[in-house]
Task: structure prediction
Amino acid sequence: MARDQEKVRQFIDVAESAAAAANPVLPRDFPYQYRSLFPITQRYTYLNHASVAPLPLPTMQAMQQMLDGVAKHGGRNFEQWEQTTAATRAAAARLINARPEQVAFLRNTSEALSAIANGISWRPGDNVVSAAIEFPANVYPWSRLASAYGVELRLQPETGGRIEVDGLLSLVNNRTRVLTLSWVQFGTGQRFDLQRIGRFCRERDILFVVDAVQGLGAFQLDVERDFVDALAAGTHKFLLGPKGISLLYLSDRARQRVEPTVIGWTSVQNFRDYAVHERLEFREGALPLECGTMNEVGICGVGRTLAMFLEVGPPQIEEYLLYLVAYLREALAERGYTVHSPSEPGETSAIVICDNPARPSENIHQQLEAKNIIVSVRLGRLRIAPHFYNTKEDIDALVSQLPI
Result:
């Protein structure tokens, strides 16, 4: 344990130095200037962003303003809603280095992944490669293909709390059409090197599909740099947005292979003329997958949150979270808790999985909730997931209440 603590201590030093180099206010003063944007801090020590995140105050206010306009004016502000949606799309594209028309808004991560899986023309004998510890949202859309089309789902098992990337890539053969993976694993916190996996797939003409819901908002992702062909991410976790909205990104090469399977009046060009077109001429990029009236209120909220992220700075958020998570890991180890999340540089995320072998995690969870300290239990272990407005004092408050 002493060796592990020393390794973590070194990682903290590296993370803190990198953070300070990126921005002189990091890490000591960084979170405090944003605390007032999160009303939840007045009541809770909230460390559960891998589940459902609290809405920032500006996001809530933007949604309330739009709802107020609907209540008072009905559909008179329709053009304003469209402008807000366009601005949100542009902000989402900027966050991941995509073009706006490559980003669509769907209801959730599951729907976005299903739209990708269902839109590919499969042949019997094709296969999809993934990991055995994926969240079900990134399993069921692909496992259904076995009975529907004779497509094999090949899964790399977990070893010692990790998915070995070499083993994952070894499952690929000349019938592999898709490699799909969560950027950050929900049950272990392992973060993958997307660029390495994406380049491997691109060299073999395989679509690389990423479930980014547990990483986007906490860490930086560049779809071009990382060779990501398709991406799905609900906004209610680390993106700090409302439930019921997800981002779907399709690269140009992915759009050539993913056909819309649920089609509505807004899927086609010139849909605002309200005429029935004999020939289906789809809108550009991922936009045909938005098949009808959307949740403009939710999209408005997402847009305000994305603006906040871009104002704060994704590099600064990432550097600070690396520091804070390292501090958390060290504190947990000193308390006698076993940390199961990978500690290798590049594999850590904003999710830390731990337990006390002598005490059931569910009981610990209940004790923490009684103190207004909010975490989760996943797969029988505690899951702690801070964000950039959390402080060292939040971590100290959590650790001090953990039973030994």
